[in-house]
Amino acid sequence: MSEATLFGLCAAALVGLGLYGLVCHPGALRKILAFNLLGSGVFLLFGVVARRGADPASGLGGDPVPQALVITGLVVAFAATAIAVALVLRLAATLGRTGLEPERPAGPDRKPEDRS
Amino acid sequence: MTELAELLSGQLAALRALGGVLLVLPVALPLAGLLLALGLGGRQTGRVAMGLLAVGLAVAVAIAGAVLEAGVPLRYDLGNWAPPLGVALEADGLSAVLLLTTAVVMLGVSIYAHPVFRIPAGASETRGHLAFWILLMGVWAGLNLVFLGQDLFNLYVALELLTFSAVPLVCLDGRPETLQAALRYLLFALLGSVLYLLGTALLYGEFGTLDIDLLRGRIEQAGPLPVPVIAAAALMTVGLLAKTALFPLHLWLPPAHAGAPPAASAVLSALVVKASFFLVVRLWFDVMPALLAQTAAQVLGALGAAAIVYGGLLAFGQARLKMLIAYSTLAQLGYLFLIFPLAAGTAPGTAGEPGILTGGMLQLVAHACAKAAMFMAAGLIAASLGQDRIRELAGIARALPITVLAFGIGGLALVGVEPSGAYLAKTLLDGAARDSGQWWWSLAMQLGGLLTAAYLIRVFFHALSGFSRTPVLRSRPALYQELVVLGLALCSLLLGLVPASYLALVEIGRLGGVAGGLP
Questions:
Q1: Cα–Cα distance between B60 and B104 in angstroms, integer?
Q2: Is 1.10.287.3510 the CATH number for A3-95?
Q3: Which among B22, B297, B473, B483 could bridge B384 via Cys, Cβ 3.0 to 4.6 Å?
Q4: pLDDT in tens, B128-187
Q5: Between B83 and B191, whose confidence is greater?
Q6: Which residue is closest to A96 within chain B, CA to CA?
């Protein structure tokens, strides 16, 4: 098994774990962590692609374009995590819990404080 | 007046003479607005944003004019770096139409929102005022970049810019319900974008480029679609569908769109969900037209038809006006996805007959204008009455005649009465369904029209009743707010009167579209 295949399989496993967590876990924080795991899998895949596309003539260990994409992707994923965590914190401060499901299935149309 | 017209046309000609550089402006203007807003603070930002949007509208008109006149897409390589290393911006007919729609709707929304997000004299500045305008500029930048980008990774960044600006718009008022709606929206959107990114990685691994033109060429050379390409297309499409809220990935949309402030709902419902739909079109029609021959095109159509029926039925059952409009968005998005099986049916393996994309784009533009008008009208009604329960709308037509008229015109435009854009769109799509022998898509469209009429009539029944008593209004909307809403609704209603020579704009830059033209 070559280096690229091994890391490619690792990337696939990370994507699978992340996807499972993002879809199946009810907790918001867990979902955010799962999103990061999924994102890491994608970035690892970019790394594998970069490694596999190495041009021997250039003397570089890998194709630099996917590496540049990974750096941008990391920044974007970081920003996404920051926004999501900020929302969860705000939710915890106003509601006292971070779950996404409403606590009791009250009719959404009968709340007296509805202002929108 | 004529002098003003001459001055304007002179300015437009000067803009058009810029050529490809013109394409930088739709992205640079909102970013300039963002930076200025940080420096100027909440008091001035609204006016600056409106000014920039007015300039943006002129730029969009100039781009559309230039593309229509030349008959070929306008293109600009950023920093003179040609792809595959550089990133190109390109405005074909589709981009030009969407840039124009975005500019019109955004300008309308900003005029409407100005009194809402203005800091009263003597009051101290709050975060909400500044945040709204900054986020609006962010959404505008993201949209324009999505419409112009030619590099799949650049488009990913644009989509994320759009998401990060749109999500906080949902929870501007900070109530727990809207925070939950925003969080759910964000999680759906993040799942969508990471799947899109995964597809991008697979495509780069296979072909070593992410530029749309180069990629199309290399995919065509590869013969029958290789497995990684199909996997990439599936991942990217599903990711984008989650962001577009196509049934059954729609769960986040109604609470998010109904809970946001009306001006934000208008932008989210009219424009933001269309950006990811636009990328699906780019992917299926431009990057890999061979996809249309797959069964998957039929699946997209079936999901669209399901969305039309499901959204329509749920809209009918809603108790609150804004929720009804949000579910209506769900149904109207379904129409857009009918273009995939129709295009597949008319010409297997190619990008399909020109009329279908024109029909799809007409539906998109008509819905954007009408839905923005309806959300803003509902916002005016809710602000005046203090609530928006449909059963308690009695007498509102007497109290706010212009607003209710605007809502009605928007509704008529959605149903697709004669001169409206939706009417023309449905005629074109109906024709395509008949020609390709896929009558069942027509059936879905007709059923959708009936459901739309049904839930709107329910609103009118309550709004037009109780003429003897005028409800007590908490506040009156400004006249210009009502007129802006009416104007946007009329845009949608009169869209069908646009001459065919202008409609040909949609086809510019399509595969074989220049030669084919409109029938």
A1: 9
A2: yes
A3: B473
A4: 788 889 999 999 999 999 999 999 999 999 999 999 999 999 988 888 888 989 999 999
A5: B191
A6: B176
Q: Where are the domains of chain A?
A: 3-95
Residue B56 has phi, psi (to 5 degrees) of: -60, -40
Q: Say how far apart CA B266 and CA B112 lie, in whole Å.
A: 10
Q: Mean pLDDT for chain A?
A: 82
Question: Which residue is associated with the tokens 């759009």?
Answer: B162
d(CA B482, CA B400): 9
- Residue-wise pLDDT for A49-61, tens only, equals 888 877 777 777 7
Determine the angle formed by the axes of helices B42-70 and B25-40, rounding to 10 degrees: 170
Mean pLDDT of chain B: 86
Block residue for tokens 């593309």:
B67
Q: What is the DSSP string of B467-514?
A: TTSPPPPS----HHHHHHHHHHHHHHHTGGGS-HHHHGGGGTTSTTHH
Question: CA-CA distance, B357 to B512, in Å (whole number)?
Answer: 13
Nearest residue on chain A to B321, judged by CA atoms?
A: A116
* Chain B interface, best mutation among A87, A94, A104, by max B CB count within 10 A: A87
**Beta carbons of A35 and B187 less than 8 Å apart:** yes
**Closest approach of B408 to chain A, Cα-based (Å):** 20
Reported as half-sphere exposure (CB side, CA atoms, 13 A), residue B40 has a value of: 19
**Residue partners of A91: CB distance under 8 A and separation at least 6:** A28, A97, A98, B176, B179, B180, B183
Which residues of A are less than 8 Å from B322 in CB distance?
Answer: 116
What does the pLDDT look like over B232-265, one tens digit per residue?
999 999 999 999 999 888 888 988 888 889 999 9
> Which token pair is B322?
């804004």
Burial-class residue B441 by CB neighbours within 10 Å (0-12, 13-18, 19+).
buried
DSSP letter (8 states) at residue B337: T
- Both ends of chain A: CA-CA distance in Å? 59
Question: Do B344 and B497 touch, CB atoms closer than 8 A?
Answer: no
Q: Using the 8-state DSSP alphabet, how is residue B20 labeled?
A: G
| Chain A residues with beta carbon closer than 8 angstroms to that of B200 | 69
ipTM: 0.86
pLDDT band for B1, please (50, 70, 90 cuts).
low
Which region, left, alpha or beta, applies to residue B80 given φ > 0 means left and ψ of -120 to 50 means alpha? left
User: What pTM was estimated for this model as a whole?
Assistant: 0.90
Percentage with pLDDT > 90 across chain A: 44
pLDDT at A102: 54
Burial class (CB in 10 A: 0-12, 13-18, 19+), B49: buried
Write the pLDDT tens digit of every residue in B358-407: 888 999 999 999 999 999 999 999 888 888 888 888 888 888 889 999 99
Q: Which residue did the predictor score with more confidence, B435 or B268?
A: B268
- CA dihedral sign of residues B133, B134, B139, B142: positive
Q: How many CA atoms lie within 13 A of B410 on its CB side?
A: 33
